[in-house]
Amino acid sequence: MIELIHVTKRFGAETAVEDISLSVARGEFCVLVGTSGCGKSTTLRMINRLIEHSEGEIHIDGQQIRAFREETLRRRMGYAIQSTGLFPHWTVERNIGLVPRLLKWPTGRVRERVEELMALLGLAVDEFAGKYPSQLSGGQAQRVGVARALAADPDILLMDEPFGALDPITRETLQEELRALQARLQKTIVFVTHDMAEALHLADRLVVMHQGRIRQQGRPLALLREPTDDFVASLLGGEDRGLKEAALLPVSERMLPLDPRGLARERVGQHASLREALSIMLWRHAERLTVVDDDDNPIGELSLRRLVGARGHE
Ligand SMILES: Nc1ncnc2c1ncn2[C@@H]1O[C@H](COP(=O)(O)OP(=O)(O)OP(=O)(O)O)[C@@H](O)[C@H]1O
């Protein structure tokens, strides 16, 4: 559990973060969003003491972070950043194995772990293990950075735009991997992104920051439906919020029983989102879709009318 209690950070005369209180439960995925310069990275870096906070208290599992030795704290927390922070004169393999080696894992185990992570992140061992960061593309370097953050299997992951330089397909794959990892292993994650779709998709707790302060925090659906002010509403997408909300709701939630008059020709999977269903309707010029299970058996139907009414404001 991570707790920030009335935390402020000043750089000289400038206040970068002002009086923020935030609590992230074990196994929770917390995403920080906000305008450029609002203090997201500073907040993240205060948690692993790359930046010392000026006022307030930060606790990890009930203990003040200042009570930990800095290295102990940092080894407990994986940290991945957009610019990767890889050591340029070290190979990919050595970069990924950094923390396990510091923790004095046996060499064979380090090697095994590095290979496991490279496979997870789609980096062929034969091709990439011996390369240096300057020989990698931006996206490949970013994957190495994420692998390094995960290497020692830390309970806490701090991630600052870790997928910023990735193509949409790799990005989506990694988002799913991270979500699955977090659900399976109860990782506590604090994640910074500028991509609102990514934030809404990943967050259990979404934290909107502005000018060093937290404007609103809560579940993504709650923020979309009841933003506290125009700033939060517009950051979350303004009029586009309807589509963003639909992206968070599964088809199965609004499915109707099968129509005895016959099946609609176009189909949608039960796990698809209402946004995907709407997209199929638009693309196929269809007002009704047959909802199918994982084996492609029809289990219900979704109409446009039902979908439009399904946005939670009926
Ligand atoms: N080391 C530093 N010295 C002085 N000012 C700093 C330092 N680091 C950050 N700041 C200032 O603190 C404020 C918050 O910066 P921070 O990097 O946390 O914002 P951010 O929300 O992560 O921004 P972005 O989305 O652009 O990355 C900014 O005004 C920045 O100029």
From TrEMBL:
Keywords: ATP-binding, CBS domain, Nucleotide-binding, Transport. Residues 255-314 form the CBS domain. InterPro entries: AAA+_ATPase, ABC_transporter-like_ATP-bd, ABC_transporter-like_CS, CBS_dom, CBS_dom_sf, P-loop_NTPase. Residues 2-236 form the ABC transporter domain. GO terms for molecular function: ATP binding; ATP hydrolysis activity. One of its GO terms (biological process) is quaternary ammonium group transport. The keyword Cell division does not apply. It comes from the Bacteria. PROSITE patterns: ABC_TRANSPORTER_1, ABC_TRANSPORTER_2, CBS. Pfam families: ABC_tran. Belongs to the ABC transporter superfamily. This is Osmoprotectant transport system ATP-binding protein. It comes from Halomonas stenophila.
